[in-house]
Amino acid sequence: MASSDRAYELGFRSLDEEVSARELPVEGSVPTWLSGALIRNGPGSFEFGDERATHWFDGLAMLRRYAFSDGTVRYTNRFLRTEAYEDAESGATAGEFASGGGPLREALRWLRALGPPEPTDNANVHVARFGGHHVALTEAPRRIAFDAETLETRGEFRWNDDIPEHLATAHFAVDPHRDETVGYATAFGRQSTYHFYRIPDGSAERERFASVDAEGPGYVHDCAITENYAILVEPPLRIALLRALAPWQEGLLDMLEYDEDRRARFIVVDRDSGDLVADLRTAPFFVFHHINAYEDGDDVVVDLVAFENADIVEALGFDALSGDAFDAAPDGRLVRFRLSPETGEVSRSRQYDGGLELPTVPRAVRGRPYRYAYAQATDRRGANGLAKIDVESGTATEWWERGVYVEEPRMVQHPEAEGEDEGVVLAPALDTEAERSILLIFDAETLTELARAPLPHVVPFGFHGRYLPEA
């Protein structure tokens, strides 16, 4: 039984077993109105032949599906059958984040040789739906389609457009109010550029609506939307393009450098006209994930998980995770930025004092004023908890259990919800005492645990997922 303070290491071990539509035992009661599937993405194996990945971000993509119907939960997990998956048997790791060639180096080879890049297709970060296609995503510009029920790999998904991209977003902003999804791409060159685009609901085609010059360029992981705007934060963690030419570089991680003298940059563009509405600077910080954004009169409010610097990136490498470093990794904070395009002012305030990451908000309030955010709570040794943050009062309801490491929560509203927080929170977790992964289901209003469903094995810590009502 795993009982040490480093029991979390179970979450970084490779998993070989795949199961299909296995009904899970349930302790408690799953609401019968919950009908659909939570599909998540993340690493399943860290082995490349006789070598092991050097960073959490580099594990081979494994999809996980939790299907809900009439109070039951069925679980499926399956590796994406990609070129990266096939190459792993021979020990190849080209194109990964920290292990191997890296998508950025391949992009620069393309710039020099005027030939197409061959970045990794190890799409292990997130999932999305474009028209009738369900797609696994990573930050390299390759996407893999899969069957939403069986999780079987269907092949590479390709756009039919001329939008250039050398790094891609794995975090698309789904806007249920305007029936479209917003994304962005980074293109490298003498003047690197961020390209913003939309995908209308029911479509699998991109429409570019804005392009903005990049500075750095920055390592951008996520974006935000409001009713009228798309927002991108360019942190001082910049991509040193020339360092990619050095023969000793291993992956994208080696080409990132944090410039503490560079200010963080907020880019705000109009989603209709494509005009640059604001290009504002503030004191340096690093961000992976946005929480929500909305308009307040002439101001734009952006809530995100901010870090003092980019140490968190290397802290998630396996060398750094030795010893007690996992518990000592930097905590992100919920910080609110108020942007005033007319005056050029940027103000910031902390909305909650606890450490958190992997945030989500109810679907109905995306890009609109809101009150509640749900996130992984990170500032207690020997566990990761769940937090429901009231962004108006700065208070939170928290759930903790010793030895349980909660992953990204996903709030699902009741189909007849009248209140913002009426529904459930789905939270995969690692139970280190039981040495298996579990799915936790909470009442979204109180964080009262409604049910837990043990899985047949330990699934490595994953990244992101989406709940699909009809999947």
Report, as a whole number of angstroms, the end-to-end distance. Answer: 36 Å
Proportion of residues in helical segments: under 10%
Mean pLDDT over the full residue set: 91
Strands, count? 35
Uncertain segments of ≥5 residues (pLDDT<50)?
Answer: 108-117
What count of domains describes the coordinates? 1
Cα Rg: 21 Å
Q: Main β-sheet: number of strands, strand sense, barrel status?
A: 7 strands, antiparallel
Strand portion? 35-45%
Overall morphology: globular
Biggest sheet, spatial arrangement of strands: 23-24-25-26-27-28-29
> What is the helix tally?
4
- Helix/strand/pairing category: mainly beta
Question: Can you describe this structure?
Answer:
The chain has four helices and 35 strands. With 471 residues, it is mainly beta. The chain has one domain. It is globular.
Structural topology:
Layout: E1 22-23, E2 27-28, E3 36-45, E4 47-48, E5 51-52, E6 60-69, E7 72-79, H1 83-88, H2 103-113, E8 126-130, E9 133-137, E10 143-146, E11 153-157, E12 167-168, E13 173-175, E14 180-187, E15 193-200, E16 207-213, E17 224-225, E18 229-234, E19 237-239, E20 256-258, E21 264-270, E22 276-282, E23 286-296, E24 299-307, H3 311-315, H4 325-328, E25 332-340, E26 345-360, E27 372-377, E28 385-390, E29 395-399, E30 404-406, E31 410-413, E32 423-431, E33 436-443, E34 449-454, E35 465-468
Antiparallel strand pairs: 1-7, 2-34, 3-6, 3-35, 4-5, 6-7, 8-9, 9-10, 10-11, 12-14, 13-14, 14-15, 15-16, 17-18, 18-21, 19-20, 21-22, 23-24, 24-25, 25-26, 26-27, 27-28, 28-29, 30-32, 31-32, 32-33, 33-34
